[in-house]
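User: Hi! I'm working on a homework problem where we have to compare a predicted structure to a textbook description. Could you give me the structure for the chain below?
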Amino acid sequence: MSKLTKRKTFKLTTIVVVIILFSSAKVPENNNLKGNVFKNNIGQALTIYDKNDWKEDSVGCLKKRSRKLSEQLIKEYKLEKSNLKDFQIIFGKPNKKEISDNIVILSYYFDSFCKEGSINTDMDYCIAEYYFKSDTLNSTSYICF
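Assistant: Happy to help. Predicted structure tokens:
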């Protein structure tokens, strides 16, 4: 076999292998998420989250909770002026609940560092606060320490 024939054979073989690899690769389907996914802007930039991540990350140590996830859930589930009960169906039990007069503040930790399953307040952490006046979501705030 001449050098030229060997090169052509090598190129052709390489092309065939690449075509086979790409044609046999399967693209993962996200049918079970049904549009409830988006990218988080902290931690792993390419990690995709779904609507259950907020509840699953109970104190924010898994880095699934974020301000962006909070805002997405509020928008997607039309919670802008929701009542306390409907809000908690999506966000779950708060880490802290304060009540004074007709104002209820639900606080959820996010972007936290944990030690033995509990939030380590000696390290950086953030709190999402949701203010309910007369049982209606009135405002939100995001505070990092």
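For your comparison, note the following. The chain has four helices and eight strands. The mean pLDDT is 79. Good luck with the assignment!
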